Each structure stands twice: as structure tokens, then as C-alpha cells.
Request: fold
Amino acid sequence: MNRISNALIPAIALLLAIAAPAHSETMAPASPPVSKDLKQVLDRLQRHYRDTNSFSAKFSEEVTTVGAPARKRQGTVSFRKPGRMRWEFEDPEKQTIVSDGETLYSYDPDLNQVVETPLKQALKSSSATSFLLGIGNINRDFKAAFANPATPSGLIDLILDAKTGGYKIEVGLDPQTYNLVTLTLTDQLGDVTRIDFSDIHDNVELPDSIFAYKAPAGADIVTAPASP
Reply:
């Protein structure tokens, strides 16, 4: 996968965790036990995830790589369960990332290249896949804590560590809607991806055509090799 897709994959999984129907389910107990206040926050977050079938939003992204200047971009994102999404990045580094629920397409117009990857292979982790498919569980899949100190933004600031390891994840939630407002991911090399969301609309009507992808004429098609 190309340069931005790698950073966005965990962001996508978390975005869906914080924003995504479903049957009522019993919350799995966290381990270790969380405080009452934190448990209430996580329970409400899980309900918000269950009750959101689709959403659209604007976003801005800043990627800071160790030893290199920060890169900033912005665009729009749309998501619909199960596993359908579209990220459109604007100038100066245009890019389109689309999932039809089975395959992830990443188009780089500068290279005129489309990388096609099976969705489950692109995510690589069972927890990320489960959130995309609408069966994720916050308490089961993450160790959670309030950020300390909290930012002065008025958001609910949480740190979520995937129990399978990998990224350090910090999120800022709107205290009224529990929509995801900020998302910061730090990888094992110290590279940081921050995404800020705005103009968020839950449970909007999103037709299949948004998530159908057809490569531009003349584009190189690269199929990601199968996982061993």
C-alpha cells in the first residue's frame, strides 16, 4: 500500500469505532476493571458505535514523520456499514481511498496508479476488521484510560491501546454527541498522524455509487500480494 494508506488504516478502524447498527449486546468486562465514570463513557461510546449506520464528515490531517517536516492535507470522508468508505484528499496531494466492503482501492493521481488490496488483508488485525464490519467492541478490543492531563478543548480525551498492540491512540470526543472530533495515532517509530473532523453527519443516506470504484483510464493497476 502507498504512503498515506498505511497511516489511515488504524485511523479508519478507530473512526468507525467512535462513529458507527446493530442488535443490543452485552458489554464485555474490561480487564483490568475500569472506574465507574470511565465505564459509563465507554458504554455510551459503544452504544454510539452500534447506533450509527453511516456518516459523512470533513477532515484535516497532519502527518509528522521523525526527521521530516509535517505534511498537511484535508478532504472528506463517507462511511456506511458494513465496511464501505470513501476518503477524498484535496490538493496539494490528491488521493482517493475507497472500500466497497471487500476490496480497498487507493488511487494516487500523481503516479496514476491504483493499489487494490483485499479489505481484511489491508487491515491486518481482527479488531480493525470487526469495527469495519460493525461487530467491534470497545471494552473487548482496547485498554482505555482518560488522558492525563486532559486538553483544554472541552472534549472527552481518551487513550485507547489496542490489546493486540501497535499504535498509541488518543481521541477527543464531543461530550454531547460522542462524535469523534480529534484522532491522534503514534506508531512504534514515533511517527504521528493527527486527524481533526468537522461537519459530521450521522446516519445519512449514502448510495452504493459512492463506494463503487472504477480506475481512471490508463491507470496502472497494482494488486497487493496475498498474505503468506
